[in-house]
Design a protein that fits this description.
about 160 residues, mainly beta, Jelly Rolls, seven-stranded antiparallel beta sheet, about 0% helix
């Protein structure tokens, strides 16, 4: 495989730009949350697992990726995603019937939020009826003896246009 991912020639420390031009990656941070949490059936949005990031520029976009492990069977009649408390961005999830292991994945561009601390939360809501995506988020050996602690991972990327 060949090609450039980024070209940092003549740039200050900590600034990464794509090789073809465009936006600059100002900062990137990964936050893990391993809180094992029981989910319950609902029709309204419930924020379950959260992480915070402090933006350094008021004109940059905040792009967040979130991967959330879930365990055991339940309804597929739900919306899952992430929110900044104002905007909900729906994601997708995958279900493995053999092991009852599910993974939720969401990528959201929250745009130009202020240069301050922002809390992003993973959550869900029943779609047309009270339901949940799984009984547990971030399962561990208490949930299923074969598991080690599982973690929700948030990846924060701050990109200047």
């Amino acid at each position: 495989m060949s090609g450039s991912v980024s070209n940092n020639a003549g740039r200050g420390s900590g600034v990464i730009a794509p090789a073809g031009g465009g936006g600059k990656l100002l900062a990137m941070e990964t936050v893990r949350n391993g809180t094992r949490t029981a989910l319950s059936s609902t029709t309204t949005w419930v924020s379950v697992i959260s992480a915070s990031y402090t933006k350094i520029s008021a004109t940059s976009d905040l792009i967040v990726s979130c991967l959330t492990p879930m365990y055991s069977s339940s309804s597929t009649n739900v919306d899952i995603g992430i929110t900044d408390g104002t905007t909900v961005v729906l994601g997708s999830w995958q279900y493995n019937v053999q092991a009852y292991v599910k993974m939720s994945y969401t990528i959201a561009n929250f745009g130009t939020l202020s240069a301050a601390s922002h809390t992003i939360s993973w959550g869900y809501r029943g779609n047309n009826s009270a339901s949940d995506p799984a009984p547990w988020v971030n399962p561990n050996a208490t949930t299923e003896q074969r598991f080690t602690q599982q973690y929700t991972t948030f990846i924060f990327s701050e990109v200047e246009a």
